[in-house]
Amino acid sequence: MGNEKISSEEFQKFAELIHRISGIYLKESKKTLLSNRLSKRMKDLELNSFNDYYDYVISKDKEEIIEVINGISTNETYFFRHNPHFIALFDVIIPEFISRSHFPLNIWCAGCSSGEEPYTIAMLAKERGYLNRKYIRIDASDINTEVLNLATHGIYDNKKFRETEPGYIKKYFKQLNDKNYLIDEEIRRSVNFFRFNLIHDSTDKKYDIIFCRNVMIYFDREDQNKVVANFFKALNPEGYFFLGHAESLYFMDSGFKFKKVQDAPVYYKE
Ligand SMILES: C[S@@+](CC[C@H](N)C(=O)[O-])C[C@H]1O[C@@H](n2cnc3c(N)ncnc32)[C@H](O)[C@@H]1O
């Protein structure tokens, strides 16, 4: 076992299961990726066919599906990704909240991958004197347990700094070797990471600012509607919602209002 190719029927079976559990819609073009990822796991388990592995996944309920999803989710991210969002947040939005004595601010990065997005917020908060539970509390979640594990360890390679000013690297990271850097302890401890599946989990917690950037592009319209409605519920009035810069709620009846803050397109709740 190891290099078998997945058949179209087997691919469909796994794609439907992955879609049902995570909302992630796998295109046929991901067949080789899925086949390689599953084969690796099947080898460890000494299972000989994709159908046997499918039965195993189903019989193990949640534990094994986590392995499958860890293998297929797209986790691309980096520090200061789409900086206009962070400029709007720290130059306009947070100062407005603070001037109205509306704090602590609860911030949620949903679909945070390996943590670069919430850690960018934490570094900027530190720069502005807000990195204190009195002002700001940062939650960050993902469905993928492997990336959450990377996030909590806080070790990054230099590709993650493609948009980071050298001053931040110097100030907030310790170089471990040629490639790898460890994030500053205070920044690391300021973010609360947890597993949260946007399709099946729910929260009663209320937030003032929610980031969910470059996550829902992998969902179909029905799941997008459901997830956006949950964010609307989780957001306090006058709260802000950030989507990826190529994403939009334009065709959705979401209840969110749109505006530009500096150069950043943002959504808010009245
Ligand atoms: C491309 S990354 C985006 C990371 C970051 N938000 C950014 O914009 O740089 C997408 C993340 O969404 C996560 N994801 C996909 N489906 C999810 C779901 N159903 N619930 C929670 N997270 C999910 C993936 O595991 C992945 O880490």
Key attributes of the depicted protein:
single chain, 270 residues, alpha/beta, Chemotaxis Receptor Methyltransferase Cher, domain 1, three-stranded antiparallel beta sheet, globular
Q: Please mark out the parts with pLDDT under 50 across 5 or more consecutive residues, or reply none.
A: none
- Count of DSSP-assigned helices: 10
Helix fraction, binned, reads 40-55%
CATH architecture of the largest domain: 3-Layer(aba) Sandwich
N-to-C order of helices and strands = HHHHHEHEHEHEEHEEHEEE
Shape: globular
**Cofactors and ligands:** S-adenosylmethionine
Under the CATH scheme, which class of the largest domain?
Alpha Beta
Count of extended strands = 10
What is the CATH superfamily label of the largest domain? Vaccinia Virus protein VP39
Q: Trace the largest sheet across and list its strands.
A: 6-2-1-7-8-10-9
Examine the coordinates and then state which fold CATH places here, giving the name of the CATH topology of the largest domain: Rossmann fold
The proportion of residues in beta strands is: 15-25%
Overview of the molecule:
This protein starts with 7 loop residues before the first helix and ends with a strand. The strands form 2 sheets. It has a 7-stranded mixed β-sheet. α2 packs across α4 (62-72). It is built from 10 helices and 10 strands. The protein has 2 domains: 8-72, Chemotaxis receptor methyltransferase CheR, N-terminal domain (Chemotaxis Receptor Methyltransferase Cher, domain 1); 83-268, Vaccinia Virus protein VP39 (Rossmann fold, 3-Layer(aba) Sandwich), CATH 3.40.50.150. By secondary structure, the chain is of the alpha/beta class. Helices cover 43% and strands 20% of the residues. Bound molecules: S-adenosylmethionine. S-adenosylmethionine is lined by residues 22-24, 73-77, 81, 111-113, 117, 142-144, 147, 196-199, 213-215, 218, 244.
